[in-house]
Amino acid sequence: MAESSVTLEEVEKSFQKFAVHGDTKATGKEMNGKNFVKLCKDCRIIDSKNVTSTDVDIVFSKVKAKTARVITFEQFNQALIELAPKRFKGKAQDEALQLIYALIAGKEPANMGITKVAKTGAVDRLTDTSKFTGSHKERFDETGKGKGKAGREDIHDNSGYVAAYKEQGTYDKKMKEKE
């Protein structure tokens, strides 16, 4: 048995974090196949020698219910029991399972490949609205926030009877003056 045994609660917390990853409607009680593979990759259960992503897919299909597309924590645990001897060849079943638990405990989904905002001199100069001139200057207010459609095109006032009529609303006044 491994010196430091990991509790199932720690593994379950990681399971829940991976289960809700990338899915706004997920409750954390069930995990889909994509997130199961992500957990196996991020926690280094998939090592490309002993365990491949194909192995993980096969085990996922084996433990889930026939028509289901997700697994519960109990089924997840069953999947780990099947993957443990493959990942840690030559170890006893219990020891291999503890080593897999140790890989998973405390982990959460890594967000690899997320685009960071570029902060180079050229980008700062090009996006500084205080340096804009001409018609581009009209598209932003003094704080540098865009005005939207009002900044891009002239909005016409089509409330008059004749286009560009300057004395709108003065007809009644003129009629009273004549009386």
TrEMBL record:
Region (Disordered) location: 134-159
Domain of life, source organism: Eukaryota
Residues passing through the membrane, by range: none
Biased amino acid composition, Basic and acidic residues: 135-157
Cytoplasm is among the record's keywords: yes
InterPro entries hit by this protein: EF-hand-dom_pair, TPP/p25
GO cellular component: cytoplasm; microtubule
Name of the gene encoding the protein in the UniProt record: TPPP2
Keywords for the protein's UniProt record, in alphabetical order: Cytoplasm
Keyword Secreted appears in the UniProt entry: no
Family note: Belongs to the TPPP family.
Alphabetized GO MF terms: tubulin binding
An annotated GO BP: positive regulation of protein polymerization
Protein name (database record): Tubulin polymerization-promoting protein family member 2
UniProt-listed Pfam families: p25-alpha
Subcellular location: Cytoplasm
Organism: Scleropages formosus (Asian bonytongue)
